[in-house]
Design a protein that fits this description.
about 1250 residues, alpha/beta, 51 strands
Length: about 1250
Amino acid sequence: MTTVPYKCLERIFKMFINKARAKMVSGYHVLKNNARRILKRAPKMKFFYGSYYKHCPVVENRILFESFHGSTISDSPFYILKELLSREDADKYEIYYSTNPQDYETHKKFIEANNIPVKLVSITSYKYLKVLATAKYLINNSSFPVYFIKKDEQVYLQTWHGTPLKTLGKQMRKGIESMYNVQHNFLQATYLMHPNEFTKNAIMEDYNLNPLYTGKVALSGYPRNSIFMDKEKAKEVRKQLGLEDKVVYAYMPTWRGTSNHSVNQNAYGREVTKMMQYLDKNLKDNQVLYVNFHPILKNSIQLGDYKHIKSFPAEVDKYEFLNSVDALITDYSSVFFDFSVTRKPIILYMYDYDKYMSDRGTYFDIKELPFVKLYELEDLKEWLVSEKILGASYDDGDYCEKFIKYDSLDAPAKMLDLVLYGKEEGMIVEDYSENRQKPRRIIHPQKASTKGDFEVIKQFSKDNDIVQFEKKWFRKKVSCILYDDYNYDFDYVIITNTTPRTYWEEFLYKLGVKSVIARLQERELKRTFPNLKVQTPYLREFYIAAEGCGTRNTERIPVESDIESGENGITLTVRNKERFVPLSFMLLEKDYSILCMRELSDEERKNGVIHEDFKKWNEKMSPVGRYQLAAEFVDMESEEKFIGTFYCPEIAKKADAGAEKYDKPDAYLAPCIIEKVGDPDSIRFYEEGKVAVIPYSRNGDRTISITLRRPEKIVDEYTQAKIKKIKSSKNTCTVYMKMRKQDGLKIKDVVLRYRSALTYDIPVKYDIKENDVHYFITAYINFAEMNLRELYWDLRILADKHGFENEIRARFVNNYWKNKFYITNRQYSAGEGHMTFPYYTKGGCLAFLYRQDSEYDAYSTKVKEIAASGIYVLFKPLLKRKKIWLVYEKFCSMAQDNGYYFFKYCMENLSDEEKKNIYYVIDKKAPDYEKIKEYDDHIIQFMSLKHVLYVLAAVLYVASDSRTHLYAWRCKTSLIRSKIDKRPIFFLQHGVTALKQVGPLFGRKGSSPMTYFATTSKFEQDIVVKYLDYSEAKSPITGFTRWDVLEDTSTKDDKLILLMPTWRSWLEEVSDEDFLKSEYYKNYSSLLQSERLDAILEKNDARMIFYIHPKFAGYLKNFKKTGERITLVPFGQKPLNEIMKKCHLLITDYSSVCWDVYYQKKPVIFYQFDLDHYNNAHGSYIDMENELFGRHAYEKEELIDNIEDCINKDFALLPDDEKNHNHYFEYIDDKNSERTYIYLKSKGY
């Protein structure tokens, strides 16, 4: 009888338990997600509408009117309603008008004041869903919900709401997906109403309606515009509002953004506020400006308390009021088309013309219109205050013929007769019912989000095909890809999966009941393609074998093959070559697009043998790329073609059998070597020298792919030494590692590698043991014997394979050691005043950090962390309700920068309730503590128990430096430190982002990403959005909080020149000997000892402060000066803000301090003797030679010439710098802290 070992039984039992637990967890999540999907309010609306749609009949006398999603009672639907109410049979109809919860009371007062007998129904109510499903007549100027389906008995009039100037639908390059519900509503409509041929052509073309719409299109003036022909009504309104003796202007701007789902509310609000404040200050007492914002923005922009500026009156219809004003000011809003019917003056105020055209675009150049065009606020003020606008006129016959020739008094009556009785008299009506007869094939890709996906659709689709895209696919630049290259190659619709259904139908659908599935499919057809002759099922699988085409929409079938690989290439041999004949060979990219492809020769097809050396494809591949090998095959039995991948069972079996986490050499074959890989024009993706092409059996399906790496990185691709144990003593760390043996691998050394641009190795002692499968490597690292440099050292194993020296990383296989580092105080003495500790890198490898000893290295810090964690877990709900803000600056040791001034503003300007949970973190031993000790109740001692606890409990950090400065600097592996990275942070910055590329550090995908990123101007915000990948909404233009107190305190009696260069990465932490050899030292040392400079200072009774960067503070002792008029000041000894306020002139190189000085309208000289070196090392977001303000010098004498010239001109700005000042600074009003606080509160903190 065979016995099963106990350990084997234990392993089987654990496997069973783990699988059962995984299934339970998976089932719980599925149940929870389904419940959330069904019971949330938005999905519930779909289910309730589905019930009403299925069970409730249409009510013959019921009418539903809706304007702008219930946000207003106005526009063409309202004027059609007024026409209906004026008729004798009006009371036979049951009339509803959509509203919303926010505007319900306003709308109620409006209908009561105007005696309008309609029932208000909120679009968020279930009653609305019932009315929508049962009303015989539907009239809307925007769109009903996306789950709406017009029943056959219903009549739906879609009036739209304006002649389009702004591009719509598929013309919105960055927001095509936003057309999804508008397009859906247009397709559902019985009648589409257009006010002119221009509008008809734009909408029918750009929503793909010409080939898809099956209803009727009526050309008629907008019903709402009939009011503009009623001059008596205008007089009545002015009298009603007491405006007879006033000059009345109306301002009606549109929204900004790339689509109506990406509206730039912050920038828009700032501009509007600035404009309103300025105009209100200048308008005369007999002048009044009424403002009405676009419905998208009306809840996000609030008018202030103005004397001459008001919101549109709520008691009067918007268009009735507009008819009464003397002139209209707008920008890109189509309202000017309507207002022009009055022939009254119109101003187009386009302060952001270039930006708007770039973001959104228009159908024609708005400058061609016959109205007054203004671009500057000063000009707008002049035209309004002087009433010059009242004399402006336009009588453009071409304009009238093109845009307003159909407008008439009886437009509402015509539209009402069309809806109620189908009367078409007095209108041009075009019937699109012929589209019902065309048979349509629907292509619904499994996904379409890359250029390859769109390319294959383009090549595969035929005339009369309709492509169906899902809105959720449109992320990042998908819309731009479609717009730029494929917009007119096929007809398409954009959908969301929101088929209306009942709860019971949903339940049966989940159970797979075929009749219910068929019913819902039919209903979805009616929702997406009403009345079209659509072939089912949809085409979901297809491909085209051509370079650039995607293959995600077809099954890639593994074909058994043999593979051989060597220095000269790889050879693939199809095993069943009689059945599966390869036609072409290809490389598939990560997104399964065909990167490269070649037709196979007759011999290759016949023998089923493909040899590839990849040399012809070297420029198309990336030197760090990864590609799947594939081919187009023909199955000789079925004669069908397909995309096949290559699968070798023996390699797959070997790979699976020998695979260990991070150590899988059996899955990889010998590499072939090629050269000059990548795009030669790309620095990042080009390799001039040798590149290894390594075939491997990839995880998952185990088909054959290739990866490209530099030869010294071959082994690291598939092998890392797994750390089994770490032992520690006072000076020594012993690391035990295990690594799979592999043919041809020879271990040469174990080293610590310095992590730097100038890397080097320090060998460590090691020994190796082995068995049949593994190497067992033990490294003995004695830090007391090593001459280390700060900061980072990586443990590496050096080995030879394939004729190249390779490095192998030491990797942790799980979180055991990471967790152990959290609770232990593992560190090693590394010489006098220094220590080293191991840590777990982001990639899961072992590294060491070497630095000076710190008072926070003691185990008491760990105890504090554990205690704080326990308290936080116990009292988390209570602590979170407090909404704690932590404010801090560099190392939590300073109170000089934006963090301090923001905190000071909060303490001195907020109420006790508002500021009670705002705290400043600082080491109370720091000199700057004296400045803020008056707020001691809101000061937290750095690294105290309260600090550690509040770091966990805070809902927001507000700082002028990164998160790392909130805790012990370069601390050991810490549970608290790991949590800091997950908390939201508002980055106040400590310098304008422009002169140095900080994306790798502070970018959204950098090593220290921010949640919110304060900026100082549109100029800087554009940089942060473009290069650091933050949205405009998360990079608000607030200005620097320290600038609130930045006032010029310079005096004629103290001519102070501040010399403040920044640091150089290539000189950081170098020896004094190397520093003395640097250009940096030589140039500044020579300047400080210049007798000519000293003479100029003496002659003009001026002095200079040399204020060195904190990273170079240790080198200050090496600088010497000539004379007593130059002072050497280390960073932090004197408050920088105070020096900048006192100085007359700044000399810097690339330091962002230049913006602080320029903000005060003081001159700046840029001394850039190493510009090329700096640009290569750090880079800049602007061309500093041509795009930067100030004077520029590249040699010492040139700099001294500039200093002398600046003194002689009494430290005046250059004329161009004076002119461009507003370009770089959005606000100079001492309200940056206030703006910052308001912004944070708007985010819910």
